[in-house]
Design goal:
Layout: H1 2-17, H2 21-24, H3 26-39, E1 49-52, H4 58-66, E2 73-76, H5 79-83, E3 91-93, E4 107-113, H6 122-131, E5 133-144, H7 150-159, H8 171-174, E6 183-195, H9 198-207, H10 220-229, E7 238-250
């Protein structure tokens, strides 16, 4: 029951952010471009290319720009996000917590950008996605790791305020059930966002629908304390550091 309520909260937040998402999703755009740069070096077999948790189609559009003959199938649980995709694109409304849609099988390529950490059991999910690949197919995912947000965590320690961010996946746990020959690539990247203050930092999460938390909502005095103790730059602005893992798995 708790998972169902949580998943509805996540979906509602992404639905509400659907019209603003593209104009505020800088980090998602950056790693969508990174994924496409890797794709250019791979030989992908014929078949249906799938983008899992496609949202407004940010990654799928980037792939289609580079591979103009491809029409990427977009799968997401947010109807309003899917409606932001091109009318001509193939879209499937589906909750990936329930596995993959029955029609998805033997795909030579599955991609997923900033999605899997929102799902109930990422380690199980990635194994399921991999199992549905065509032999010789690739699964490429990007996601924030547990080492993200050190400034936020340190501020919470100093102020004795509960850290209410998500608990992101541990990179090594995501691939521990795979054989070494199936792990084509795995690497971590640091990405730093800068904001005028803590209030705009948290607003940025709302703008892309990523504000869902299992912690308590912050009170005004707590936000003021966090603004006071958050590490400041010379300009008195604040940083938020992400650690993003890109993993490419190849099915033998």
């Amino acid at each position: 029951m708790k998972n169902k309520i949580w998943n509805e909260t996540v979906k509602n937040n992404f639905n509400n952010a659907s019209t603003n998402y593209l104009s505020h999703s800088n980090i998602q755009k950056h790693f969508a471009e990174e994924i496409v740069s890797f794709l250019k070096g791979l030989h992908i077999q014929k078949g249906e290319w799938i983008d899992l948790g496609s949202g407004t189609g940010l990654l799928a559009d980037e792939i289609e720009k580079e591979f103009s003959t491809r029409n990427i199938t977009r799968i997401d649980f947010s109807k309003k996000m899917l409606l932001q995709n091109k009318d001509s694109s193939k879209k499937i409304l589906w909750d990936l917590n329930n596995g993959l849609p029955p029609s998805i099988r033997n795909s030579p390529l599955m991609t997923s950008n900033f999605c899997i950490h929102w799902l109930d059991n990422p380690e199980k999910i990635i194994r399921d996605w991999f199992s549905k690949l065509k032999s010789g197919g690739y699964l490429i995912i990007s996601y924030p790791t547990i080492n993200s947000f050190p400034e936020w965590k340190q501020t919470c320690l100093e102020t004795n305020i509960e850290y209410s961010g998500l608990t992101f996946p541990v990179s090594k746990d995501m691939i521990k059930s795979f054989n070494s020959y199936e792990i084509f690539f795995s690497n971590k990247y640091s990405y730093v966002e800068n904001f005028p203050d803590v209030y705009k930092l948290f607003r940025s999460m709302v703008n892309v629908g990523a504000q869902s938390t299992k912690g308590k909502r912050k009170k005004v005095y707590e936000l003021k304390e966090m603004q006071k103790f958050w590490p400041k730059k010379e300009t008195n602005s604040v940083n938020l550091t992400w650690e993003i893992n890109i993993q490419i798995l190849k099915k033998s």
